[in-house]
Amino acid sequence: MFEKLKRNRKKKRELRKYKEKITKNFKDLKHLRKLTKEQEKEVQDFYQGMIGQKIPLYSHEYFYSRTGVFNKAYVPTNIYACEILPKANDHSLLKAYGDKNMCDLLFPNENIAHTILKNMNGYFYFEGNPVSKEDAISLCSNLDRVIIKPSRESQGHGVQLFSSKDGKTTLDGLTVEDLFKQYKKNFLVQECVKQHERMAALNPTSVNTLRILSYRSGMEVLIIYSVVRIGRLNQVIDNQCSGGISTTISKDGKLGKEAFGGYSEDNIVKTDTGIVLEGYQLPSYDKAIELVKRLHLRLPFFNLVGWDVAIEESGEPVLIEFNTNPGLSQSAFCSGMGGYTERIIKELWPRPNTWLKD
Predict the structure, then answer these.
(1) 26-40, 185-199, 243-257, 337-351: least confidently modelled range
(2) Beta-carbon neighbour count of residue 257 at 10 Å?
(3) Which of 76, 69, 68 is nearest to 50 (CA)?
(4) Residue 62 and residue 263: Cα distance in Å, rounded?
(5) Of the residues 58, 62, 163, 246, which has the fewest C-beta atoms closer than 10 A?
(6) 243 and 267 share one domain
């Protein structure tokens, strides 16, 4: 009984945290739109038909205000994070499978961004082989344009581009040893992907990736949506939460009309390089979708997965990383989970919440 009360209190705290975050961001929007009584009824009827209860409407008002598009299928961020995701994915395995250092181990013989060095729980591995810290520093003393990033962080936190020569890096005069001390443990050094010219045209200083959200239902993998994430001028990171922008991708690989950045930067129609987003054709989109569908079937404990895929110079898709705790790009997509929202929620709602289980 006591454990159940603790879990319920924890759940209420998390639900409140997500609500406070989105309502805080709501105040910074240029246009504040309230739902009409008819829209409120449409949303509540939709959700009561799926989960048998009413939902808070702040997410619908927030995304309606950002996009100018009303959609009953927006998903409240706290319900998504605290109910839908832990019903879809085994919460107890998130950290292990979500570690970016596991990516190439889980998907051997697939086109994965090449990791030069891993630090896993303080242990170093160079090209897959265990090495001492001293050898790791020496082996990384002369590298050209590589990415270093934490292996257990998301949203672009801690991602840096650097080169090294004779043990000195291009990052504020730090040595390789200094850099490794900064990251402490659980990080990786990865080759920087040389992207296709059409992807580079969107922003040449960042690797601009496709974020594809997929849902597994039995042997079927559904593509909920795809967005392209584009960095800003002279920035390395493309993630929307870290300064980049994102817009939807149609089924034939063309970009949507507008992009969104941060929590309140809206209705961007051109990249910083001057590319008009609407109708811009991405290369090899169909190949990227094929890759995601194939890989998702190898993850039996996770039914909702976010995939970050780049397109190489050759036009081949390459997996940068995957996320077992993905957010929803509801601004760019103008929906929660699109036409699959009702199906997915109805399938998941009866399942146990793995975040709250004993």
Answers:
(1) 26-40
(2) 12
(3) 76
(4) 10
(5) 163
(6) yes
List the one residue out of 107, 102, 75, 105 whose CA is nearest residue 88: 75
* Helices within 150-267 (DSSP H only): 176-183, 197-200
Residue 339 lies in a domain: no
Same domain, 153 and 207: no
- Cα atoms in the 13 Å half-sphere on the side-chain side of 251: 3
Smallest CA-to-CA distance from 256 within 243, 267, 242 is with: 267
Contacts of 283 (CB under 8 A, 6+ apart): 196, 198, 199, 253, 311, 315
Distance separating alpha carbons of residues 132 and 327, to the nearest angstrom: 37
- Residue 297 neighbours by CB under 8 Å, 6+ apart: 216, 219, 221
Give the chain's largest Cα–Cα span: 67
Residues 170 and 287 in one domain: no
CB of 320 closer than 8 Å to CB of 310: yes
Cα–Cα distance between 124 and 313 in angstroms, integer? 30
Could you give the C-alpha distances from 159 to 70, 102, 150, 222, 289, in angstroms and in order? 35, 18, 7, 30, 26
Same domain, 183 and 268: no
Residues 304 and 224 in one domain: yes
75 contacts 59 by C-beta, under 8 angstroms: yes
Lowest-confidence range among 11-15, 98-102, 181-185, 243-247?
A: 11-15
Question: How many C-beta atoms surround the C-beta of residue 54 within 10 A?
Answer: 12
Query: Token pair of 68, please?
Result: 């100018």
Of the candidates 230, 214, 211, the residue with the CA atom closest to the CA atom of residue 319: 211
Q: Please count the structural domains in the chain.
A: 3
Q: What percent of the chain has pLDDT over 70?
A: 89
Indicate whether 50 and 98 sit together in one domain: no
| 89 close to 324: Cβ distance less than 8 angstroms | yes
21-36 per-position pLDDT tens digit? 666 666 677 778 899 9
pLDDT in tens, 216-231: 999 999 999 999 999 9
CA distance 61 to 179: 44
Q: Is 156 exposed, middle or buried (0-12, 13-18, 19+ CB in 10 A)?
A: buried
